[in-house]
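Reviewers of the previous submission asked for a worked example of the structure-prediction workflow described in the proposal, so we include one complete record here. The input consisted solely of the amino acid sequence. No template or homolog information was supplied to the procedure at any stage.
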Amino acid sequence: MRGDDGLWYAFGTSDPLREGEGRAHRVPIAHSADLVEWSYVGDAFTADQRPADAAPGSALRAPDVRRVAGRWGMYMTVTDCAATPTSSPAGSTRPDSGYARTRRPA
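From that input alone, the workflow returned the following C-alpha cells.
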C-alpha cells in the first residue's frame, strides 16, 4: 500500500524475519521508496496486544490492510484461541505504527 508520505508499505505474518532470528514478530511492517529496497519499520503489535481469548504465543496471520476514510484498518487471523481461530480488527491513523485492536471493524 502507498502511504501519504509517498512510501510503499508491506505487512507480514507473525514469524521471524530472518532464519535463526528466534523471535516472532507481531505483524512486521516494512517500507520502500522504490519497491526494490525495503526497510523494516517495526511491528504493528506488541506481545501484550492480543485478543482476550488468544493463547499466549498465538500468531497473527494474513494481515489485510486497507485505507478507509483517512484511517488504516487491518484484519488478521488470530491462531490458538480458546474456541477457533478468529478474525480480529485493528486500526491506526498511520500505516507504520499505532495499531490498536477494536471490537468493531477498523
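The chain has a mean pLDDT of 79. We consider this example representative of the routine output the project will generate in years two and three.
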